[in-house]
Fold this protein.
Amino acid sequence: MWKAIIRSQKGQAMVELALLLPLLLLISGGIFEFGRIFHAYLVVTSASREGARVAVVGGTYDDVRDRVIASAPSLDAGSLNVLLEPENYGRGDMITVTVTYSVDLVVPLISALLPDPFTIKAATTMRVE
């Protein structure tokens, strides 16, 4: 009688694993993608601040773009888009540096839930010195 009970419990563990494994993989993949997206968000936000600082002390658009790219070494420079508004500005004017970046999702099920690529946008406004 005890052998029959032990044998059925071995199968129970496999069934529990088969039921919970997809859920655990989904949670792990979600944590992984969230970490990648949040990292990119922090870097893009910091890069927009760095670019705005260069613009307010008299930098050109090329100087701003170069600083943004240099401030985001962990991101693909080809996917960074920098917008400086207004193009012509003078002392005392407010300028806005907007940086957008597209994060390509790598976990298949998460890419079905979120737009792929996931676009991150950060804008910083400062007064020209």
User: Anything to note?
Assistant: Strands lie at 81-85, 94-103, 118-127.
